[in-house]
Amino acid sequence: MYTSTEGKEGAPASAVIDLRSDTVTKPCAEMRRAMAEAEVGDDVFGEDPTVNEIQRRAAQIFGMEDALFVTTGTMGNLVSIMTHCRVRGSEVLVGDQSHLYFYEQGGAAQVAGVLPRSVKTLPDGRLDLQDLERQIQHGYPDVHFAKTRLICLENTHNRMGGRVLPLSYMKEVRDIADRYGLKVHLDGARLINAAVSLGVEPVEIVKYCDSVSLCLSKALGAPAGSLLGGTAEFIAEARRNRKMLGGGMRQAGVLAAAGLVALRLARENLTRDHQNAQTFAKAVKELRSPLCSTDPDTVESNMVLLALPGKLAGEELCEQLGAVTSEEKQDGGGVAVKALPISSQHVRLVWHRDISAADTQSAFHKLASVLQKYSK
Ligand SMILES: *Cc1c(COP(=O)(O)O)cnc(C)c1O
After folding, report:
1. What is the pTM of this model?
2. Is 4 near ligand 1, meaning CB less than 6 Å away?
3. How far, in Å, CA of 17 to CA of 272, rounded?
4. Disulfide engineering: 215 pairs with which of 39, 73, 150, 270, CB 3.0-4.6 Å?
5. What fold is seen in the domain 29-264?
6. pLDDT tens across 65-103, in order?
7. Which fold has domain 3-25+266-375?
């Protein structure tokens, strides 16, 4: 059985340490209480007070006019693209390693009828700005081309290991967008992680964007829900698109109530997650294993990417981490560490609220013992 330590200091390590994703967190006692006691109404009529409250709170956090509670980050991104690109023949520029391009089934094309054109993603999650600018089709483009209307950024960057985009870069993208009359959408599934990492308020990041989406169900630890921010006009249209996509929920206040708790606890939880990830990365570096390495300088939020240059493949490492050997059992336990290979040469580990400092240490010892077995 999974035993959660709820990340308390000094708590015993779990028998199963799940570092596959920060989506695996279960709602804490405070969230469950808030859900049980939430005041609710029909949100399609705009009458759910708890949904209205989280939307007001989100607008404040984003520094934007209005916000909308949506089912998922995927829906937030899709609704944003549909809302920004209402005119047929529109194109959106997205990173080739972005969640939007890589993991959302091409929803922009499949559902919204918008052409996603990919731009090279650099190892730190930024888009190559020369490539970006070269691809823009503005004004009255040649009849062969769709017209670019939107640029999408991702901060923190998921596939690049939780990298945080510098504010100076956000401004550079804004300047390019303004030069060509384009909108900027930020996939901020982990926006608060980025803000905590940079030591700024989220509004300092969001101010360069026309819209933003934030996941409550990732590192923030709520069971479901995302928030979309923008101008009042944008959100009014986004609300229509949300309904069309089947995202008009009724007494959604039970979910929003958990989200409000998640927002309140965010800074404290994410600060601890980032510290745990950093501690783990430094310990891995000190191992100096030829099979597995990571650079703590690139660990900027709650993720660690393990690079596997040699004979140990990502899939195999994950299998070994997840298995408890009979010797380990005899020695009185042994932990299983769950992790995901994102390619045969990379394994991703994600910290979250249900992982304590003690879990972090146990996970490291497990990795070290697996690596030792392979180095023989
Ligand atoms: C998880 C994620 C999403 C999608 O969120 P869901 O709630 O799983 O649909 C979008 N963007 C990024 C960067 C993500 O990590």
Report:
1. 0.94
2. no
3. 16
4. 73
5. Aspartate Aminotransferase; domain 2 (3.40.640)
6. 999 999 999 999 999 999 999 999 999 999 999 999 999
7. Aspartate Aminotransferase, domain 1 (3.90.1150)
